[in-house]
Write a structure and sequence with these properties.
The chain is α+β, with helices and mostly antiparallel strands and 127 residues long. The protein is built from two helices and five strands, in the order αβββββα. It starts with a helix and ends in an 8-residue tail after the last helix.
């Protein structure tokens, strides 16, 4: 199956082809040389001329680095960031709701004080 896929990519002009097996930590890559894909040796530290990304194996785990040198976040890291952002948004929503409630309580208090002043014969706007 992988051989057929590889040959398909080779035949139709793919510039680069990479395989990573997370179970074994094996990373392989090929780069177009004329009509064929030639194996990249070594893949460790390889920087794709087309993509500008760097491939590193750290303790058998593939790490990809952007052209600016920053590491791409993993799926798990992205999901953790998403959850943290969701929690921050929820906290901000709760703070805004608390502020709205405080403002409403303050408005009601001002209305009660104004009503009390009126009952004493004092117009609040004149006081």
């Amino acid at each position: 199956m992988m051989t057929r896929k590889f040959r398909f990519y080779e035949r139709y002009g793919v510039a680069e082809y990479y395989l990573y097996d997370p179970d074994t930590g094996e990373l392989s890559g090929w780069q177009r040389q004329g009509e064929t894909l030639e194996e990249i040796e070594p893949m460790e530290g390889w920087i794709s001329p087309r993509l500008g990304i760097r491939f590193e194996l750290e303790s058998g785990v593939l790490q990809l680095y952007r052209p600016d040198g920053e590491r791409f976040a993993t799926y798990v890291e992205l999901m953790e960031q998403r959850e943290q952002e969701r929690q921050r948004a929820e906290q901000e929503r709760q703070r805004a709701e608390q502020e709205r409630q405080r403002a409403e309580q303050e408005r009601q208090r001002a209305e009660r004080l104004a009503a009390r002043l009126r009952s004493l014969g004092i117009e609040p706007e004149e006081a």
